[in-house]
Amino acid sequence: MSLRSSSAASAPGIADLIAQHALFAVFQPIVEFDGGTILGYEGLIRGPSGSPLESPGALFSRAAKEGMTTELEHAAARTCIQAFAKLGCEGKLFLNFSAEAILKLEETRDATLAWLLRLGLPVERLVVELTEQCAIADIAGFMPIVAALRETGAQFALDDYGTANASMNLWVRLQPDIVKIDRFFIDNIASDALKFEAVRAMQHFANSSGARLVAEGIENEADLIVIRDMGIGCGQGYFFGRPNASPATSITDDAKQSIRAEHIAVFPGQTRSVSASPSGGMAAAKMLVTAPALPRKATNNDVLDLFNHMPNLHAVAVVENGEPVALINRRAFMDRYALPYHRELFGKRPCLQFANASPVIIEKSMTVEQMAKLLASDDQRYLADGFVITDNGKYLGLGTGESLVRAVTEVRIEAARYANPLTFLPGNIPISSHIARLLGHDAEFFACYVDLNHFKPFNDQYGYWQGDEVLKFAAAVLADICDPTRDFLGHVGGDDFLILFQSEDWRTRVHHAIATFNEGAQRFYADADRAAGGIHGEDRRGNPTFFGFVTMAIGCVRVKSQPDHSHVYSSEMIASAAALAKRRAKQEPAGFFLIDVEEGESIMHMAATPQQPETEARTLN
Question: How far apart (Å, rounded) are the C-alpha atoms in residues 67 and 451?
Answer without folding.
Answer: 70
